[in-house]
Amino acid sequence: MSAQNGDGHARRGRGKSLRFAGNRVRKLYAYFVSAGRTDLPLARAYFLLNLGTGVIFTAILEIVNPGLIAERIKPGPGEQDRVFKIGSSILTVLMLVVAGLDVGRYHWSAPVASWLQIAALVLVFLGYLFMAWATTANRFFSSAVRLQRDRGQVVVDSGPYRFVRHEDKMLREELAGYKEYAARVKYRLAPGIW
């Protein structure tokens, strides 16, 4: 690879990290503007954790699984859950607006103990680590439900996929080797659901 190509690849990786960061900053903005204040240290810690781990992980993922960030930002053909993703994004922003209004202006819910908020932050971070493990192990970890024939999708049985799988009728019927994989890996992430 020439130095020029390497520089272009690095610029694209930085651009994807910046796009990710911009998305997180918009969510932070929705929360704190709704709250009408920024003197909420645990909320700031949550958003910094989210932004920091996200930007670092995006940069690492671009090295470990080149092309996956592009797939996650703009999935290829055959996406089957576009309406769900759009609805989920809208509901996430609405949730942040309502949470901001609650904690900063209207105090609809009772205060949550600091120790419980810190415990929740630790659980969020552990969840990020689990997702990072799954994503680095699975170069097909798309943001869309789709069979990635265009990317040469195969069954991934390393990382957390050695222990748990998510049941998917489409994978079972259309992805070579998935039935055998499902027979080997009995545990599902959410039994009966996913």
Protein traits:
single chain, 194 residues, mainly alpha, 7 helices, 64% helix, elongated
Q: How many angstroms separate the termini?
A: 41 Å
Shape: elongated
Proportion of beta-strand residues:
under 5%
Largest sheet: none
Number of strands: 0
Would you tell me the structural class of the helices and strands? mainly alpha
- Mean of all residue-level pLDDT scores: 86
- Total domain units: 2
Low-pLDDT windows of residues? 1-10
Number of helices: 7
Provide a descriptive summary of the structure in words.
With 194 residues, the chain is mainly α. The chain folds into 2 domains: 3-145, no CATH class; 154-194, no CATH class. The chain has helices at 3-35, 41-64, 68-73, 82-106, 114-137, 169-174, 178-184. The relative contact order is 0.11.
Summarize the structure.
With 194 residues, the protein is mainly alpha-helical. 64% of the residues lie in helices and 0% in strands.
List the helices and strands and how they pair.
Elements: H1 3-35, H2 41-64, H3 68-73, H4 82-106, H5 114-137, H6 169-174, H7 178-184
Helix pairs in contact: 1-2, 1-4, 2-5
